[in-house]
Amino acid sequence: MERVIYSVKDVNAYIKASLSNDQNLKYIYVKGEISNCKIAATGHIYFSLKDEESLINGVMFANLASKLTFVPKNGDEVILLASIDVYVPRGSYQLFVYEMALEGQGNILIELEKLKKQLLSEGLFDESRKRKINIFPKAIGIITARNSAAIKDLLFNIKRRYPVVDIYIFYSSVQGENAPKELLAAFNKSQQYPLDTLIIGRGGGASEDLSAFNDEKLVRAVANSKMPVIAAVGHEIDSTLIDYVADKRASTPTGAAELATVDQREIQQKISYIFDDMKRILQEKIQNIEEDIIFYKDNLKRNLTDKLNNYSLRLLANKKQLSSLNPKAVLYRGYSILLDKNGKPITSSKQINKGDKVEGILYEGKLDLIVEENNNGK
């Protein structure tokens, strides 16, 4: 059998692909102690995570590390949300870290993961539950903080895109100890209004600032909302339980406004296209009608000509027939007509007697005659 020889890169790439496709190694929580911690000038954090018996390298890139509320250092006990990845050039596997929390905070993440799995098992995240957003709404509701950048963005973009919609605002704090209770109260109030869509959220923030949107009571209430819900809680890299139960998720308030409405410019453009299509269709119909008129005109003219010719021929034949029946035609051949004194035609000699005056009608002229002899048909 022919041997297949792989390059070192091929082997490492194959291992990377195999690990990347293993669902058991994606988004796992790992607990350990940080050692060999180095923060690069780029903001990337490189470290090792160890326990009493083993060690694994890890990396947290700058865009994610910038969200940390503490500076990691050697000896910190942490809980990580990470996936296993392979660095192909060196053939080494490592933890690719999304979130990092000190052990106390990490326990919160673990409890959150338990709640997430529970809600998932109940089917609250199922796509079959998701409802379609009416992009031609009569009324939109918004739940967010008063005087926030989020409410300004939402109001500006909704009115810019679809100015005819009514907007109902239900203010609530979006972080802090009272936020879950206030958000739930605002949500319950929103359910009393005839809304086509409800937008709930804020303009992003650190993971710990979004915790109110993981409150179980609030999440379950949103899952049973009377109207479709758009979650606009955080940026692209953030996610909360509200995001999973909502009918649509937007990474920003502007994105939520775009999901909730159609842009009036799109409507105007579509109307313009419709008018252009109607104009084209009418022009085609008019052209077809004109062609039909020309066709029927020519056809009518041809039919009338044919009928006139037929009538002319029939008239000529009738004229000839009538001419042949004209008494003058008989007289022309040398015959004559005799009329008695009352002007009635004489068809028998028995109608007249000797000495009667009769009138003879010739082809040309008349004769007054006296009967000198009558043989009475003998």
Radius of gyration: 53 Å
Percent strand equals 15-25%
Mean pLDDT over the residues: 87
What is the first-to-last residue Cα distance?
Answer: 142 Å
Shape verdict? rod-shaped
- Helical content class: 25-40%
How are the strands ordered across the major sheet?
A: 1-2-3-5-4
Number of helices: 10
Low-confidence stretches: none
Overall structural class, as computed from helix and strand content, comes to alpha/beta
**Major sheet characteristics:** 5 strands, mixed, barrel
Order of helices and strands: HEEEHEEHEHEHEHEHEHHHEEE
Oligomer status:
single chain
* Strand runs, count: 13
Quick summary:
With 378 residues, the protein is an alpha/beta fold. The protein has ten helices and 13 strands.
Task: Describe, in plain words, how this protein is organized in 3D.
- The protein has 378 residues and is of the alpha/beta class.
- 40% of the residues lie in helices and 22% in strands.
- It contains ten helices and 13 strands.
- A five-stranded mixed β-barrel has the order 1-2-3-5-4. A five-stranded parallel beta sheet has the order 7-6-8-9-10.
- Helix 4 links the parallel strand 6 and strand 7.
- Helix 4 runs parallel beside helix 8 and helix 5 packs parallel to helix 6.
- The radius of gyration is 53 Å and the shape is rod-shaped.
- The relative contact order is 0.07.
